[in-house]
């Protein structure tokens, strides 16, 4: 046996020493899936907006006038609203999971020195109470600064602001739903629901643009750095 001393194992690299991953085609695939899902959610909200608009107008008039059709229309209103609401909820859950995976993959392709948090926290920050009011935006801002623009993030700010407004209005809507017991509270519920649908439509469209611009920038910048513009990313 050799008498030479055995060198101790090298310590694991610190986060700052992490070597960025090469952007993979999975990022494009995830971005495409997110875009389709969020676009469908926007369509659902357009239909829901119409349902609540009718509930606030035509249906209320039927009830006031004692129309025989009011009972059947009330059942239709409840059924369609419940079905579309459930579809929207499932859509957001799936889109949210895909978004987290997409964001983590882009974070892994970003130099560690450009990020204030590790790639794992780019997903985890979305689930921290209170912290999720600003941490996800900070993480997205880091990615945006490296890949898209260090000086202009107006689009990102609008997206986050509208997203927060949508979330808060959604909480107000849930509290109003519990209060519904007469025509007055029913009208109030529908008016708030109309506002929620409108804001969610805008939030969805802004999210689609953010995903599209960031994804495109990742591959454009990577191609320029490689000197292989137009090259297909590694799978």
The general outline is elongated
What Rg, in angstroms, do the CA atoms define?
A: 24 Å
The count of helical stretches stands at: 7
* Class of secondary structure makeup: mainly alpha
Strands, total number:
0
Mean pLDDT: 86
State the low-pLDDT regions, or none: 10-14, 229-235
How many structural domains in the coordinates? Answer: 1
Largest sheet: none
Quaternary organization: single chain
SSE string, helices as H and strands as E: HHHHHHH
Helical residue percent? over 70%
Q: What fraction strand?
A: under 5%
Give a concise summary.
By secondary structure, this protein is mainly alpha-helical. The chain is built from seven helices and no strands.
Structure, explained:
The chain has one domain. The C terminus is likely disordered. The longest helix is centred in the last third of the chain and has 44 residues. Helices cover 71% and strands 0% of the residues. The protein is elongated. The protein has 7 helices and no strands. With 235 residues, it is mainly alpha-helical. Helix 1 packs antiparallel against helix 3.
